[in-house]
Amino acid sequence: MRVIKILVAFMGVLIVAGVALVVYGLSRQEDGSVASDAPKLSAPIAGQSEMPTDTGPRSATQIAPFGTINVDLAPGETLVDFSRQGTEATLRLEGRQGSRLVIVSLRDGAILGQILLVEPQ
After folding, report:
1. What are the residues facing 111 on neighbouring strands?
2. What is the Cα–Cα distance from 60 to 28, expressed in whole angstroms?
3. pLDDT, tens only, 10-57
4. Mind spelling out the 3-state secondary structure of the chain?
5. What is the pTM of this model?
6. Could you give the CA distance from residue 107 to residue 65 in angstroms, rounded to a whole number?
7. Which of 40, 51, 55, 109 is within CB 3.0–4.6 Å of 69 for a Cys-Cys bond?
8. CA torsion sign, 73 to 77 to 82 to 88?
């Protein structure tokens, strides 16, 4: 009976230590800095003269400046929504013909594809 009590106490200590390590690991980022809720800039702000001098690998939230990307709009079509995931951007456009999603590569500015949203007939 005494051995079981010792084993239960030891497992309790291991559980507490494991939970503490998980909390500590979640509060740290991959590069070793403390995680924060502050937004990170993915491109320089207009009028900002300083460019980052870091030449190391970029994180998933940072992309290189990509310049201007032209997306052809149909007559009467407007941009309704925009989202970015990694190096791809998804534009939701609505117009007289209906809605469509345009997926754009932010690496080279190429339009990767379109998804037309049409009503069933």
Report:
1. 104
2. 16
3. 999 999 999 999 888 887 755 555 555 555 555 555 555 554 455 555
4. CHHHHHHHHHHHHHHHHHHHHHHHHHCECCCCCECCCCCCCCCCCCCCCCCCCCCCCCCCCCCCCCCCCCCCCCCCCEEEEEEEECCEEEEEEEECCEEEEEEEECCCCCEEEEEEECCCC
5. 0.45
6. 9
7. 109
8. negative
